User: Fold these one by one.
Assistant:
Number 1:
Amino acid sequence: MSKGTTIKEALAAWEQKQGEKAAEAEEIKLLCQIPSIEKMDASLSTLNNCKKLSLSTNAIEKITNLNGLKSLKILSLGRNNIKSFSGLEPVGDTLEELWISYNLIEKMKGSGVLKKLKALFMSNNLVKDWSEVQKLSELPCLVDLNMVSNPIEEKHSLDNTWRAEIEKKLVKLKKLDGVPIVRQDDEDEG
């Protein structure tokens, strides 16, 4: 089996292609690397100015080494092999959007550190329990959530209880699965 591409190698290739230093860039895309990136290595800590980091469609299993990303607002990790939210602590005070669809996440443990998170796109994961969804209520800024094709969404969409239950559990949400939420009190104000 071939060795995966390292973040250091991917960043060097990005710099050569873009003609700029990765450490100074506000947006870095390291998608679909061949061979795939398997680990978020310490080279990420050099991306001090990065506001949007895309590492989608690789083979990453763990979120690590985000310590130097003090400006990070959008993190895209879709289509990897990530099983948990742990490792997001260093960006908990800056991250506003997390794109983590098509992974292997079953538990929401570790999501509570994301104090500025406004949008969480995590369709096609493995969340199956309401107790896990309830943990998202700890996110004070969360207004946009996509959980399509998680076992819990599929089960409760079949019996038409999904939207009503989410609206009760996550009262600050304004959009669920791409569809705006209209609450009775919103209509009364208009």
Number 2:
Amino acid sequence: GDFGSDWYLGVGAAIAITMMVNVVSPQATKIVVLGIGKAQQFYDRGFRFSHHFSLTRKATQHDLEELYLGPSIELEELYAGFLNNFFVCMMFNSGMPLLTIIFLGYLMLSYSFDKLTFLRLYRLPPALDATAAIATTNMLQYALMVHILLAIWMYSNPDIFELEAFLNFDPDETLS
């Protein structure tokens, strides 16, 4: 069958590992960007720990603001990362419930790191309307449909759930 034990050992394991990488890599990128920004600011102050802007090497106010304001946040990338992980989790978690736990880890880390980076890394975002949030929310219903279809497909594999073993089950044999 399509979702046999070989599929779970090969493709399923690769999907789970990729999901784990997707939990960590966006957050690691934020840590690196934050570290580089702090290092550039430290260099600008002549390797002094003082935060006095009078110590800057920047010639113009614009250059100084560019150094200390941080990069602009790309909300569309955050929405895309969420949708990617959500769809993969919903597609395959019927046969691989571990993906739900991995996705929960993604949500917790993303929330924590986004909160930290909104406060410490990114500049104030431009005023946005709710268009991207509404579009993302509207896409979630399709994940549910894909989840149901793939669950039916996974559970219909006769190699995973053997009917004979279930019908011939004797609870007295397992107790002795």
Number 3:
Amino acid sequence: GDSVWGLAYDSVLCLNSMAEVLGHPEDVKHWNSTFNFNSSQQAFRDAWEKDTPGMYGDTKNGMGFWNIAPAGVSAFPREYVETMAKKWMDDSSNGFFAKVPLTSLALKDWPQHVDQDFGVVPDANWLMLRTLYRHNVDGLANKFTLAHFKQYHFQQGQPVAPEGRHPDADFSMFGDQYNNFNAGKIQLLLEGIGG
């Protein structure tokens, strides 16, 4: 079945565990049929560096958080995550580490593909940063998380939680300035940095 960036993989693992614990092992077959476990590793290999060295998936229409989000699956190869983090997420010229990190779209693709509202958004940051913590790429995860909180969540010294930031020179805020989309990033502080 369909899945948001493959995250159903881990959901099925949890459902399998629940079926076993609750004494319904026959349910495992059903849950496994909802996600193709047997081909997942091959699918990861096939999409690795498909268009761009050091990046996962199709990047013909720009390289964005949607290329990194599938790496949040527990079975995703850690070495791919580490490569994406070092080569692209930590790159302030062509990658995702802008003045307000992490951008939704790689900086190299802004001239052709950037959305005028969604230069930096909370859900994209949660998906990318969660991926790094999930695969224990902690040094860069901490660097990006702290930089994101420091730059995204303060405006003239005041705390804010904007819906997003425009891809302009100042990364100006848009939308609700106390937006609940940002609440998920608390998990990054508690479980990521806090351990």
